[in-house]
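Let's study my pick:
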Amino acid sequence: MRAEGVTRTPAVRAAVVWEVLLAQLTELAAAVGRDRLDIVDAGGGTGGFAVPLAERGHTVTVVDPSPDSLAALERRAKEKGVSVRALQGDAADLAELLDGECADLVLCHSVLEYVEDPAGAMTAVAGLLRPGGAVSVLAANPVASAVHRALAGHFDEARAALADPRGTWGDRDPTPRRYTAEALAELLRATGLTVGAVHGVRVFADLVPSRLVDGEPGAAEALVALEKAAATHPVLRDLATQLHVFGHRD
């Protein structure tokens, strides 16, 4: 749960993910010798990542369990004049819905927190990758949850988030599990993937009151610059709301 009154500017919140993602796309394109990559967005919902990637010329498939989200995805893609393939299904269904080794890149953003079998989901994701392909994993961080609960005055819940192996703060927590950087790395290695650098996403963006950002000239840009500087800081990274890591198939 985010602290109340913080900025919700999408560009600020997603800036670090996009910077790292676009750099990875450049590397993948150079490695495979193609500018047009095959991308699967597992749990891609309404297309927040899928549609911009399609606008950049990539072939994108979204797999999501929600028909309403997929309908919204198709509307968004149509408005932007791009084509995105939409398939209904869970992460566990990836092997049935798609051929193995069909993707240069798989996005697995805000999925591992909710699936019944995270290890099985990551195995299914890894099975889609071609040799040299990569998976982009974005997951909630338990340390940030503890910080946010404490700032909201829920000190017992903050302590519970730190103590619980799943990183949850109680029965009312809407997020079933969260991951430290070490836990994410272990999950990726278990599927045979090589783990890349970990970046913190929304270190400050979920803590700064919106009144300090919204409407102040240059404030959003300055916050983005701060987020990028903090993303790999050895201490601040681990306070981020989410952790972003790439896994690579050799």
Summary: The two ends are 37 Å apart (CA to CA). Residues 23 and 229 are 16 Å apart (CA to CA). Strands lie at 38-42, 59-64, 85-88, 103-109, 129-140, 194-201, 242-248.
